[in-house]
Amino acid sequence: MNVLEKIKGGLIVSCQALEDEPLHSSFIMAKMAKAAKLGGAVGIRANSIKDIIEIKKEVDLPVIGIIKIDYPLSPVYITPTASEVDALVKRGCEIIAIDATSRVRPNKETLDVFFKTIRNKYPNQLFMADCATYNEGINAAALGFDLIGTTLNGYTEESKNDNTPNFDLMSDLVRDSKKPVIAEGNIWTTCQLQQVKERGVHAVVIGSAITRPMLITRRFVNILKGS
């Protein structure tokens, strides 16, 4: 069974913790991944080489690998350059996710040029496009990305006013991109997940609602405070 078949119709759990969060630890992220697998997850999304190494020791699920890094004069920080792609390929990530928005990349490189280069270098690697808008998703599909994700919807200037989860965006990309669509971003409840499922997506990524207890706690606290 190939990777796309393994994740089809399933839940991929994003196991990430930022440096300023209490759970920032490769050991902890690996245990999160194990818990996700035991709960029925079909894949893991992970950030950083350290975390990916430990996660792959703990579980045998497909990994969507990313490296988040800030470069000067560019808002693109999810696997922004070929250097990050090379590192993720070396670690055997089954899927590599890349910011596929229209924003300025490091060194003012366009997505079209960037992706053509890495596709030529790694013709058999699966690449996922982290997009924010419909046009970005369609463009990524045309460039040859293997999967189209709604990951960045609501997080860019062009999409900041969108209601998320953006069910219409999911439906439109499923209909028009002709590529497997991965629903990701601001999915917090089982009711929302049911609506996502009805859009015909290939798989779903959920992170914060499962693996970020600080944010989960804050949501409950805010209800009690009436905010």
Share in β-strands? 15-25%
Supply Rg. 17 Å
Strand order of the largest sheet: 1-2-3-4-5-6-7-8
- State the end-to-end CA separation: 47 Å
Computed structural class: alpha/beta
The residue ranges in which pLDDT falls below 50 over 5 or more consecutive positions are: none
Averaging pLDDT over every residue, what do you get? 96
CATH class reads Alpha Beta
Say how many strands there are: 8
Q: Look at the structure and name the CATH superfamily.
A: Aldolase class I
Quickly give the CATH architecture. Answer: Alpha-Beta Barrel
Classify the fold: give the CATH topology: TIM Barrel
Q: Note the overall shape.
A: globular
Name the descriptors.
227 residues; alpha/beta; TIM Barrel; eight-stranded parallel barrel
Short description:
Helices cover 41% and strands 15% of the residues.
